């Protein structure tokens, strides 16, 4: 079902970049798995999206093993509760406490640093910020606001930042674009760059690939980076982000995967697998489960 | 009225950074002056804006001297004809042939390189592109589109670029923001950066601070950079751009000027003056006119 040698395997063959013995060692030491969600568990689109074949079962199989499981998503177009409810309706065995998403992480940071945000975020994620003080803002939080990224709204956020002595900008993710059923869509990173340039600041990114974000999932499992494996469809933010933090990372050939990812100039996954189901097959087989 | 020594003079005192003898030498060799328009001649705002006190008279005084005069603007919210007509109504002695603006310069480049643009520009500047072929676009032109910078419109421009084998993006200026009577407004540079990041390309800038743009005004006067002085309110694009091209540059403390400009880490104007009227006073006094 997979092979350990060839680097540029065809799209039908799982391809592990590590040497066979390193891979065995890695799997043996594994205590937890972190899964990206969109593009790994399901494809987004009208009506909320559809599960990727085999992924509902794959999640069940990890949960039935001795591995811990958490989910790390940069999803910011819904509250975590509504987002998890959507996945449950698709058949996934998943609960809110297992999901790490940027909005709750940002709320924690805002409270810790006594910051009052001006929010440029999707309406559906606003409830996450319900109990955060927002009057007289002293920072800006930008997330994937989609159609709310009007000139007026971006200008309003800019005006808040530029009048601060030391502008503080949080960006929930730094993606360039994503794919929906009707084509490519600009993601939050593009508007983060716009505000960074306008105000000559560097945004603090909350979400993947920020190390703090992976850390929160691992702290929750009580394990170290070298005991954890990330599985995602975004080579740079999922796989590269996890690797920078000391985790191993597999890329699935679903979601936003593009064949050119396997020749990326700076990020090389520890392995490329066709989908989550195949990844779980390989992991559990190596663990003799 | 001014002093030659102190670097960080208060806002009421003109401050020349050059040594007194260098300044005298510069003024003596001067053959032409290039003026930025918005923030130097007038403040924009409702009804087209209002002249900055003393600037109508200052333009007249330069024209009555032995100095040549041209105007270099990054204005792209109107055709050059309509823009000049507005300035004439404010009382300025100015003609279309004296004004260098990015749209006509871009049209020349598009025709020379057989490029068909997708335009993300203000409706009022569209007529400048009337005789440019625009079907099946193979490049994107972005200018200050203001309220037309919707998510949908930026996404449309992005989709044109991302499907090109080698995306070509022109930006008419690279300003961060400008000031209108109702406050600061995001400028084209912010959206240029957004598209650059989304598509991993570098835009070709037409307008200040591109050297080609200053060159066109100087070629028209038949003078060399060291014989020309730029006066603008934008430290980086007007003053820094002109200096990079070998001209001298004064910053006026009107328009988008901010006191922090006088401590900018990379750009130092050859002098800071309160307004255009004061600049012209100093220049003509040194020339004994």
TrEMBL record, chains A, B:
Location(s) in or outside the cell = Cytoplasm; Nucleus
Reaction catalysed? diphosphate + H2O = 2 phosphate + H(+)
Traced from the root, the source organism's taxonomic lineage reads:
Eukaryota, Metazoa, Chordata, Craniata, Vertebrata
Please identify the protein, giving its name as recorded: Phospholysine phosphohistidine inorganic pyrophosphate phosphatase
Q: What does it do?
A: Phosphatase that hydrolyzes imidodiphosphate, 3-phosphohistidine and 6-phospholysine. Has broad substrate specificity and can also hydrolyze inorganic diphosphate, but with lower efficiency.
Query: Per its record, what are the GO molecular function terms?
Result: inorganic diphosphate phosphatase activity; metal ion binding; phosphatase activity
Please tell me where this protein is predominantly located. cytoplasm
* Record organism: Aldrovandia affinis
- CDD domains registered for this protein in UniProt: HAD_PPase
What UniProt keywords are attached to this protein's entry? Cytoplasm, Hydrolase, Magnesium, Metal-binding, Nucleus
Record-listed E.C. numbers: 3.6.1.1
What family is this?
A: Belongs to the HAD-like hydrolase superfamily.
**Which superkingdom?**
Eukaryota
């Amino acid at each position: 079902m997979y092979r350990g040698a060839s680097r540029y395997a065809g799209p039908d063959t799982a391809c592990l970049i590590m040497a066979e013995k390193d891979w065995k060692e890695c799997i043996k030491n594994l205590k937890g798995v972190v899964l990206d969600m969109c593009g790994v568990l399901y494809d987004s689109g009208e009506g909320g999206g559809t599960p990727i074949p085999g992924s509902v079962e794959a999640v069940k199989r990890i949960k039935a093993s001795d591995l811990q499981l958490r989910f790390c998503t940069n999803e910011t177009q819904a509250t975590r509760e509504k987002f998890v409810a959507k996945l449950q309706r698709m058949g996934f065995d998943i609960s809110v406490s297992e999901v790490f998403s940027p909005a709750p992480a940002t709320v924690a940071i805002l409270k810790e640093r006594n910051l009052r945000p001006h929010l440029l975020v999707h309406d559906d994620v606003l409830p996450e910020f319900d109990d955060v003080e927002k009057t007289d803002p002293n920072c800006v939080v930008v997330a994937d606001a989609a159609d709310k990224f009007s000139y007026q709204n971006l200008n309003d956020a800019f005006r808040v930042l530029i009048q601060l002595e030391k502008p503080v900008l949080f960006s929930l993710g730094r993606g360039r674009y994503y794919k929906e059923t009707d084509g490519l869509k600009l993601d939050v990173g593009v508007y983060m760059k716009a505000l960074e340039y306008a105000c000559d600041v560097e945004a603090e990114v909350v979400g993947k690939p920020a190390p703090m974000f992976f850390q929160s999932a691992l702290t929750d499992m009580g394990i170290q980076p070298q005991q954890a494996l990330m599985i995602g469809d975004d080579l740079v933010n999922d796989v590269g982000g996890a690797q920078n933090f000391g985790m191993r990372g597999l890329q699935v050939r679903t979601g936003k995967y593009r064949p050119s990812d396997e020749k990326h100039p700076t990020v090389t996954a520890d392995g490329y697998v066709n989908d989550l189901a195949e990844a779980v097959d390989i992991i559990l087989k190596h663990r003799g489960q």
